[in-house]
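ok here's Cardiolipin synthase:
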Amino acid sequence: MNPLFRRFSIVLFVFIFTIGILFIFLPQFIWGILTLFEVLSIVLSMYIVFKKNDVTSVKVAWVLTLYFLPIIGSFIYLFFGRSNLKSNAIQQKEQEMLVHYVQSINSNQRLESASLLEERNERLAKKSVLGGNQFEVLTDGEETFAAIFKKLNEAEHHIHLFYFIIKEDELADRLRKILIKKAKEGVNVRFGVDGLGSVKLSDAYLESLRAVQIEVEIFNPIHSFYHLSRANWRNHRKVIIVDGKVGFTGGLNIGNEYLGITPKFSHWRDTHLQITGPLVTQLQETFLYDWLYMKNSAGTASKFMSETYFPLGSTGTDEGQVIYGGPYDQERVVRDVLFNLIDSAKGKVSIASPYLVPDDEMLALLRRVARNGVKVEVIIPGKGDRKLSYYGNDFYLETLVSAGIDVYKYDDTAFLHCKVMIIDEEVATIGSTNFDIRSFDINHEVSAILYNGQAIHRLSEAFKRDRDNSKQITIRELAQRSTWKKIKGKICGLFAPLL
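and the structure:
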């Protein structure tokens, strides 16, 4: 067990034990404490309703938690519900310098004949649509990690790597050995992980990297109770850049389960993307934007502003755009670009996501598009990795299916973890972004938008195979669910936005 959580468990046990003793010997004191927490929960609820800018479903989930569990709910909200995630003056200045530099590079590579959709997404995301790329879709763990390890072994100048989760197992050890070997060869290696997603990554693992001069940074590490206030605001991105020329992003973290080596599932279905060409500059920007936040040091950005880290040159004919965002942004860029794409559909929208917890606006948009005659098809897991999220998916099924949306549940012995959307088989998205409120509003996410090329065809073919390996959900089947299953879906749907 992580030392922080061990300490937290001890404190919680002592607190409960003390309350129990007081309840036995000083019942009036206990009733006073309960009244105090009731008042606190009411105050917090009013703050959430009137002051917070969260979407309605998130507010409802917090208010219900505080209403039904005033003591536990108050502690959870005070520790996990508030965001103190803001870049300080140094971080902001460094990040702004980086973004301005990349924008100046991309302005010279921008497509001269962009479509209306591309122009709108450029204005919305403030990221240019770039041509001259080559995209390669990787549709499982074996294919993905073979491609990643091959490119890592070919690195000559630098390796930049950030992951939400790195599980310390055989796959992570293979990664560690490659990074150490390349560092000894003189390659500059920068290694970042999320402080909660990779909380179980041992000090020994990290120190073995630092011992060969690999730079290691943790995004929002949780070292004390004070840091618990930012535990809910995580960096969910998965990004690798090699020599500024090749980049990877998508759904796969580092761990044996992403290879399908897990007793819980017969197969792990996931999708990743390999990018070569000018668009790697935007993926590089994504990594360095987080790196500057983690380093928090003046002058850091300037050493990356060169052709060494942002080389130019076309490698293909594919057009694309990398967008990223998080809770530090005033606008929810990733979500809004997805809105644009769905709203542009003329014939078909295809979505695959392990978690389906759309906010009110996204739910209304999907229903409207489907009712307008656009074919909307969604694939979700037939077996979940987290019960609350899995049953939370069910909360939205009837609303979706009743609007004419085709919803499928994937093979119930396997797990579908890919995050893919395809519009009219002409535009596609792939990245770390789930189709849920957490990805839209709370997590730091990244997605690549593909505007043409064979990669979209491959994503479409993979979607069709997944659909053929799934079972369609019907209104009749939903009506025939047991009362208990319906109740579980309703309850989990109410609280799923908090996960």
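+1. Residues 230 and 368 are 36 Å apart (CA to CA).
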